[in-house]
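Session log. Operator J.P. requested a structure for one protein chain; no other inputs attached. Running the standard single-chain path with token output.
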Amino acid sequence: MTQDQRHIDVWNNCLNIISQIIEPQPFNTWFKKIRPVSLVESELTVEVPSNFFREYLEDTFLDVIKMTLKRVIGANARLVYIVKPVQNQSYMTLPLGAGAPPTNKTISVGTYQPSTNPGPLVFPGVARVQVNPRLNPVYNFANLVEGDCNRLALSAGENIAAAPGKTAFNPLFIFGGPGLGKTHVAQAIGLSIKEKHPDLVVLYVTGNEFKTQYMDAVNVRNKLTDFLAYYMKIDVLIVDDIQDLVGQGNQNAFFNVFNHLHQHGKQLVLTSDRAPVDLQNFEARLLSRFKWGLSVELLPPDYNTRLSMLRARAFREGVEIGEDVLEFLATRIKTNFRELEGSLISLIAQATMTHQDLTVELAAKVTNKIVGEEINTITIDKVQRTVCDYFNITRESLLSASRKRQIVQARQISMFLSRTMISNCSLSTIGIETGGKDHATVLHACNTVQDLMSTDRVFRKYVNDIQNMLAAASR
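Structure written below.
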């Protein structure tokens, strides 16, 4: 036996013993994927797909592994794990994204400091400042799953990354409900820009952080000027949750920063939980600038996108999960990526801690804990089904292009109630879920229902009856 071959033969001997101790299914799932790397004296090194994979092996099969190694190698046997990087696996390219965070170059910022002479004058100075871009390497484009829900945002983001500040998408305003990937897309743009243009200074900041920094600067002499000078040196400014930027003073500061950056060809990327037209307590001049570039909405992912996301995340975790389990999760969790990813991680953790197989039954128990309390939550689907039951029509009719008066009225009522009874439900989302209508059609339907309710007593009773049915069902 050659030294180069010895670690393979030793591991094969171990596998032969282990296969006689544990059941075929866990053996195929957890041991067939382990690759022997080297054997130095009594230390065997093996390669595993992920840290989760290693933790599961040690939690579930540690006694079996220790006994087998001692039997094959000897009493001093040791097992060393190395984790195989995901990007090196040939059949899929989804990097784990755990590399070093990007860095910015040091910038020079004009500052104003009080004179040592008694008097009102201050003298300008220059300070060199290191700007941390505050970008998470995990939030890259490769770790995003593309679907109809985010395709426009990803396409715009990739165009911006290729030529920041030089496209028509400036600012890029990304909006949508919680958990739909706004932060991920925004940071992916920043990471891609740093990769393609390493000399550009990129900064990610939340609206609340900008507001806090402004308030701190106001309370310190001469610091407001330094604060503005600092932000005006940024090449790519990403502001997450811009809706938190309430207050006249900090909006005025951001207005000046926005104008300066935009006029000098710098890139701005903004995210919000609502469209610019729906932002409250914002200055009109600021709202008008938010609309200068491209506003793009992130929508709830459809079934195929949810399933693709689950497959990709399971792959990144190095865990083999049956299609029936993934399909169950994709069907059960419909609202957003965050809950979908959380349900998958919870399922893996539950299986690990309780030494259970990853089955549909276990997935049902886990998801009941995550979404069980939301079973009675009002959704567009529930509104539509309630309207159909009330008017004794089929859901297919409601979603069709039929112009029959009863069908049209039922369709308009479902749109109106979806808009008024579901928080953060945009016109575009309602339109897509109602047979692919555009937002203008939904807006017209809502206005029509409001007008009829004020003039037609019978029609108003229809709407109130359905509203009461939905309210009762959600208690």
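Operator note: Residues 86-98, 115-123 have pLDDT under 50 and may be disordered.
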